[in-house]
Amino acid sequence: MKKKTFLLAAQAFVIIFVFLLPACNPQKQMITDSAYMLGTHLQLSLWTEDKAEGMAVIRECFQRIYQIEQKMSVNIANSEVNEINRYAGKEYVAVSDDTMTVLRKGFAYAALTDGAFNPAIGPLVKLWGIGTEKERVPRLDEIQEVLKYVDYKGIKFQDENKVKLDIDGMQLDLGGIAKGYAADAVTKIIREKGIKHAIINLGGNVVAVGKKTDGTPWKIGIQDPFEPTGTHMGVIEITDQTVVTSGNYERYFMRDGKRYHHIIDPKTGYPSENGVISATIITDSSIDADALSTSVYVLGLEKGMKLIESMEGVECIIITEGKKVYLSSGLKGRLKIANDGFEIVD
Ligand code: FAD
Ligand code: MG
């Protein structure tokens, strides 16, 4: 992972952290720890009277994320996802409930978005190599060649837990959804342990458990997509919800003055370009928010907003070029703009 990307992840962490401090109170102390997994910076903070128990909970959460990464990473040779990729066009592969849940959810979002969200995006992610030492602008013929292998309908399910990719050359990549699953898994552990106040931040996939210890909602900063230095453009208050953002500032490289970022439009094979700069989803489940933030980014303002408005309990903030901010109907009046350069469009 490049240093530039790591710095951005670290800055996202600082933004959230700023709002954590006022939550401390003398009865419950904040236990916090960070780690580097899923190719990003992770931070877990929880409030408890029992420091040793709090530290044990955090350890268990990191172990759970480690397990999920071992199963779903394309960067781990013997992960279940790589096993499915290896047998593409050949055989069904039996996988764990974790991987199956993410794959079925990813497939459902692919169907819902007509393939704008695509868990079979692997060949294009590899070709562009964005965020790796191999990043480059591929030739058009190379893109056209791999586009043959990115049809999500080629993901076949059999029985409870078997998956096969129809064509040799297809490859899964769960980078747009698995962080959300990990965030939900960690939330489940924290709730089961009876912890009432926690903030989970998996490289910008944020879950706020309960309220702050003073009984007020959590304040989550929404990153200013034009300022990679880590300033927020606005603040949203949430309780027991998740906030997930997809943006073009997270992983990208510049070539000849043009920005090539990591969210790829599966229809063109190029980084998605439709005027959207960032898409933030606010809802109850982080796997849905993760898949939807990537989906809305690719669908664009009109189709993306229509999709969100059709879904119960899901809200979004879409920022476009020109610093225009579009809010779904349930968010009107809830985003406090912190930077006058942004304009909320009604
Ligand atoms: P999102 O918008 O949520 O996702 C964008 C990512 O989804 C892209 O990076 C790509 O992976 C994929 N994607 C692109 N276009 C689409 C599309 N149209 N539909 C669906 N998916 C799409 N990074 C490292 O540098 N090194 C690692 O070892 C590493 N391991 C990881 C292991 C796991 C299990 C996961 C979940 C992520 C890992 N990552 C790693 C990070 C990963 O490569 C992505 O960069 C990251 O998940 C992007 O998340 P996001 O929230 O920034 O963007
Ligand atoms: Mg996503």
Automatic annotation (TrEMBL):
InterPro entries per UniProt: ApbE, ApbE-like_sf
Cofactor: binding comment: Magnesium. Can also use manganese.
Catalytic activity field: L-threonyl-[protein] + FAD = FMN-L-threonyl-[protein] + AMP + H(+)
GO molecular function: metal ion binding; transferase activity
Pfam families: ApbE
Cofactor: Mg(2+); Mn(2+)
Record-listed Mg(2+) binding positions: 176, 290, 294
Presence of keyword Ligase: no
Alphabetical UniProt keywords: FAD, Flavoprotein, Magnesium, Metal-binding, Transferase
Documented EC number(s): 2.7.1.180
Family stated for the protein in its record: Belongs to the ApbE family.
Protein name in the entry: FAD:protein FMN transferase
Gene from which the chain derives: apbE
